[in-house]
Every structure is written in structure tokens, then in C-alpha cells.
Design a protein that fits this description.
Membrane topology (chain B): Multi-pass membrane protein
Largest sheet of chain A: 5 strands, mixed
Main location (chain B): membrane
CATH architecture of chain B: Orthogonal Bundle
Structural class of chain B: mainly alpha
Number of strands of chain A: 13
CATH superfamily of the largest domain in chain A: Periplasmic binding protein-like II
Keywords (chain B): Amino-acid transport, Cell membrane, Membrane, Transmembrane, Transmembrane helix, Transport
CATH topology of chain B: MetI-like fold
Helix content of chain B: over 70%
Helix content of chain A: 25-40%
CATH class of the largest domain in chain A: Alpha Beta
Oligomer: heterodimer
Family (chain B): Belongs to the binding-protein-dependent transport system permease family. HisMQ subfamily.
Distance between the termini of chain B: 55 Å
CATH architecture of the largest domain in chain A: 3-Layer(aba) Sandwich
Low-confidence stretches of chain B: none
Low-confidence stretches of chain A: 11-15, 21-41
Order of helices and strands of chain A: HHEEEEHEHEHEEEHEHEHEEHH
Strand content of chain B: under 5%
Radius of gyration of chain A: 23 Å
Distance between the termini of chain A: 82 Å
GO molecular function, one term (chain B): transmembrane transporter activity
Number of helices of chain A: 10
Radius of gyration of chain B: 22 Å
Largest interface: A-B, 44 and 50 residues
Chain lengths: 283, 237
């Protein structure tokens, strides 16, 4: 029966493991992300606290700061600022991107800001605030290039795009253009710097962030193509939360704080777009 | 290298979470698996049919899909049931949210999955015990239950240790799938770090090495355990 006693010992060890597991279950992710929740401003009992869902692998909108372990980014600064002017505190809940809409539908979170493009499909499931960010495709050239001023000047030029993106599709429509498809975003700009191509067509936020990271020899020119807008999502029927967010965005737009936050993360002034109704697009 | 050192605390936290959910999954899996494995050997038609259904479903579908069903599917089901009760029976709204916490969804999906594999391990282990053992025990006047408990299971347990160790290792690697629902285990920590630093190669390579260290250690532990249990054996002559 010796082996059996050993087996009992093994079972005890495994059970202890299990208990340790259950003990940690209640903390769920708080410990796992260290600073997974953070509050804006000072807590004050009359202020409501809204839980905000986001998926933190989308720099510069939301990502985890390596040094502090806190979540940071354009979206996070914006929602905290909205909370400050509209009178609510913010608690961040990080989750998988696919889970965000579900979490809103089940009323598990109060709102979500995570670089979510406003589209008709999503509008059926949740309500959106006014658009707070315009994304889309832009042309980037060397800073000393004054001949290319936008998409219209790209005919017959050499262009670098990222493989398999909407930018690649768009660039191939340009008459006479020689399109080079490369794998990674940094490669595109390297090619541009080395003079291999005349221009890069890529997502606006990604390009802007790249320039912001200290690549001042590149600039964005012209208008945004294939524009899409990011909105803050709230559960259907939560009109009070939606109203607060929209009023907050309006205030930030008027007092210049929006532009400030924009400049901090993208290194330039917002391109003729401010929160509100999308401008009429000339396609 | 500096990046890896900087991200090490996060990776260690992730590894701890990975070990935790694996231990929980396999432990609960052993409990489910024992019942399902015995159920499959049951002479009752219905019991063995149900056990077979359970095992076939969880072994025959991808774990990723099972995770999705639990985490995304169940809240919808709960929601619809609740709406149905409210509209047709005038019940008040009982649940403020039908959302399932990530850890709960992770535990449920992985342990049910593990249970199906462990059930097969146990079934094979029990069936591998020589018929003569059962006959001998029965002729000594033991009941069927006693035979199972004192004769068959102790011998079977020894035989299932190595495949159980393999199951633990397989589960440890499979928990990386939980990153898709935002459970912050080792792989998810890798995603978070890689997104902030734009250095996927170094980050995921470090993640892989940590997985390797864990699986290697566990397989050595299982080998050791197997050897220790074998020393009590005299039937090898």
C-alpha cells in the first residue's frame, strides 16, 4: 500500500495548487496587469464611476506603459479628460477586442473607447458618441518634397504600401503608379528615406505616430482618403452616459484640450477634424 | 536584452497565471475525467452514452471554439433566457449583467476540455488491469465497488501517471489560447509588451523560452514520480 500513500501526498499537493488557484480567482486580472485599474482625478462620492472597456495592444491609442505598468495612450487621456469636464471617474477594464461589444451588450461595462470604428453593423448592437477621431489613409513624403501635395499628385510615382492592407488596394487604383508592397510599417518609411520610393500610403494614426517617434524627416500631405471615424461606444439605451460623453467631447473641442491631447500623441495639430459631425467627403 | 529584462516581471506574472489556470484545469479535469471515464465503462446504456457524448464533443472540437462558446455564447444565452422570462412570465430582471468573468470562462472551458482527455486516460488505465485481478478480488468475496476501490483503481492510478503528465503539459501550452479572451497569461503578456515596444521577435522568443522551461521541468517531475512509484512494484520479478 506504500504507493497509495504517495499518491495521497500527490493529491494533497495538487489540491493545494487548486486552492491557490481559487484564492487568486477573485482578483481576476487586477494583479495580473498590475495597475489594471486606474482612476482619473480625485475620487469623490457624488461622482459616478464608469468602467471603460478597451483592448490595450493598439499604440498610440491604448497600450501598456512598460515603465509604470499603467495603461496609457490617446484614447485613455481623452476619456479621462472627458470624465473631468463631464463629472465622472474612470475605471479601466482591459479585455479582448471581440469581447468589448459583448461586454457593452450585457451591461458589464459602462462604455468602451478602443479605436472602435463607427460602422452600421456595430450601430445595431451599441450606441456611439459623436466621432472623436478621423482615421483613414494618408500620403507621407520626405519633408523637403514640395511637388507631392496629396493623392492627386501620385500619378506615375513610386509608392510603398504595407502588404494586404486597404492602403495597398487604394494605391493600386492610382493610374501609372509603381506600387511596392512591403511587409512592415518601418520598412515603408526606410524605403522612403533611402529614396527608393517617392511616397508612402498608409493609415493616418500609424503614420502620425511614426513621425511623432522622432522621424521628423517625413511629413503627411493632403487629405485623408477612405475616411473612417472612431467613436466611444455605450450600451443601447444608456442615454445619460452618452449625453455626458458628447457634452464632454464638445467642451474639450471648444477649450482646446482635445487639440492638446492630439498633439501630445500624434505630434501635430488635428487635421481639420474635431469631434462632431464628420465633414462632407469629396471622393 | 534590456527589453527582456525590463519585461521580465510581466512575463513572470504571466507564467504564474499560466501555471495557475493549468493546475486548476487539470485538477478539475481529473474529477470530471474520473466520472466520465467510469461512465464510459458503465453497463448502464444511458450513462455510457452520455459520457461518450461528453468525451466526443470536447475531444472532437477545437479548444478555441469551446472557449468562444463559453465566453461569448453563454452570456447571450443567459440574456435571451432572461428576456424570455421577463416578456412571457413577467419576472423582474434578476441579473444586472449576464457577462461571465474571464477567469470563470477560462476555468470552465479548459477544465471541461481537460476532463474529456483525462476520461480517456482513466478508461484505458482501468481497462489495462488484468481481468484476473477482478476475478480474484470477487472470489475473495469483495463487492464490485470494493474491487474497484481497493484493487483496480490503485493499480490503474500508477499506470495513468505518465499520460496525466503529458496532459498537464499539453494543457499548459493550450492555455495560450485564453489570450484571445483577454485572460492575462503568459502569451497575453507577450502581446501587451509587443504592442507597446514594437519588438515582437524578442518578446515572443522570450515567451517561448519560458514555456519551454515550464514544460521541461514538468516532464522531468513526471519522470521522477513514475520512477518513485515503480519502486513499490514487485510484480516485475
Amino acid at each position: 500500500m506504500k504507493p497509495l500513500r504517495r499518491l495521497g501526498l500527490l493529491l494533497v499537493v495538487v489540491l493545494m495548487f487548486l486552492l491557490a488557484g481559487c484564492g487568486g480567482a477573485s482578483q481576476e486580472k487586477g494583479a495580473a496587469t498590475s495597475g489594471g485599474t486606474s482612476s482619473a482625478g480625485t475620487s469623490n462620492p457624488t461622482k459616478p464611476k464608469y468602467t471603460v472597456a478597451l483592448e490595450a495592444t493598439f499604440a498610440p491609442f491604448e497600450f501598456r506603459d512598460m515603465k509604470t505598468g499603467d495603461f496609457t495612450g490617446f484614447d485613455i487621456d481623452l476619456i479621462k479628460a472627458v470624465g473631468q469636464v463631464a463629472g465622472f471617474d474612470v475605471e479601466i477594464k482591459e479585455m479582448g477586442f471581440d469581447g468589448i461589444i459583448t461586454a457593452l451588450q450585457t451591461n458589464n461595462v459602462d462604455l468602451a473607447i478602443s479605436g472602435i470604428s463607427i460602422d452600421d453593423e456595430r450601430k445595431k448592437a451599441v450606441d456611439f458618441s459623436m466621432p472623436y477621431y478621423q482615421s483613414g489613409l494618408v500620403v507621407a513624403v520626405k519633408t523637403d518634397n514640395n511637388t507631392i501635395k496629396g493623392f492627386d499628385d501620385l500619378n506615375g510615382k513610386k509608392i510603398a504600401v504595407q502588404i494586404g492592407t486597404t492602403s495597398a488596394k487604394e494605391a493600386k487604383k492610382i493610374p501609372g503608379a509603381k506600387v511596392t508592397e512591403l511587409d512592415k510599417v518601418p520598412d515603408l518609411f526606410l524605403e522612403l528615406k533611402n529614396g527608393g520610393v517617392d511616397a508612402v500610403v498608409n493609415d493616418l494614426p500609424v503614420t502620425a505616430y511614426y513621425i511623432q517617434q522622432g522621424n521628423k524627416d517625413i511629413k503627411i500631405v493632403g487629405d485623408v482618403r477612405a475616411a473612417e471615424y472612431y467613436g466611444i461606444a455605450v450600451p443601447k439605451g444608456k442615454t445619460e452616459v452618452l449625453q455626458k460623453i458628447n457634452e464632454g467631447l464638445k467642451t474639450l473641442k471648444e477649450n482646446g484640450q482635445y487639440a492638446e491631447i492630439y498633439k501630445k500623441w500624434f505630434g501635430q495639430d488635428p487635421p481639420s477634424f474635431l469631434p462632431g459631425e464628420p465633414p462632407q467627403q469629396k471622393q | 536584452m534590456g527589453l527582456i529584462i525590463q519585461s521580465l516581471p510581466y512575463l513572470v506574472m504571466g507564467a504564474v497565471q499560466t501555471l495557475k489556470i493549468t493546475a486548476v484545469a487539470v485538477t478539475l479535469g481529473c474529477i470530471f475525467g474520473l466520472f466520465a471515464g467510469m461512465g464510459r465503462l458503465s453497463r448502464r446504456r444511458l450513462t455510457s452514452f452520455l459520457a461518450t457524448c461528453y468525451v466526443d464533443f470536447f475531444r472532437g472540437t477545437p479548444l478555441l471554439v469551446q472557449i468562444f462558446i463559453v465566453y461569448y455564447g453563454f452570456p447571450q444565452l443567459l440574456n435571451e433566457v432572461q428576456q424570455f422570462l421577463i416578456t412571457h412570465f413577467g419576472l423582474p430582471q434578476l441579473l444586472q449583467t449576464t457577462h461571465i468573468p474571464v477567469f470563470v470562462a477560462a476555468t470552465v472551458s479548459t477544465s471541461l476540455n481537460s476532463g474529456a482527455y483525462v476520461a480517456e486516460i482513466f478508461r484505458a488505465g482501468i481497462q489495462s488491469i488484468d481481468r484476473g485481478q477482478v476475478e480474484a478480488a470477487r472470489s475473495l468475496g469483495m463487492t464490485e465497488g470494493q474491487t474497484m476501490r481497493y484493487i483496480v483503481l490503485p493499480q490503474a492510478f500508477k499506470r495513468v501517471i505518465p499520460p496525466l503528465g503529458n496532459e498537464f503539459i499539453a494543457m499548459l501550452k493550450d492555455t495560450s489560447l485564453l489570450s484571445v479572451i483577454g485572460y492575462v497569461e503568459l502569451t497575453r503578456q507577450g502581446q501587451l509588451i509587443s504592442a507597446a515596444t514594437f519588438k515582437p521577435l524578442q518578446v515572443y522568443f522570450a515567451v517561448a523560452l519560458i514555456y519551454l522551461a515550464m514544460t521541461f521541468t514538468i516532464s522531468r517531475l513526471v519522470d521522477y514520480l513514475e520512477r518513485r512509484l515503480r519502486t513499490g512494484d514487485h510484480d516485475r520479478g
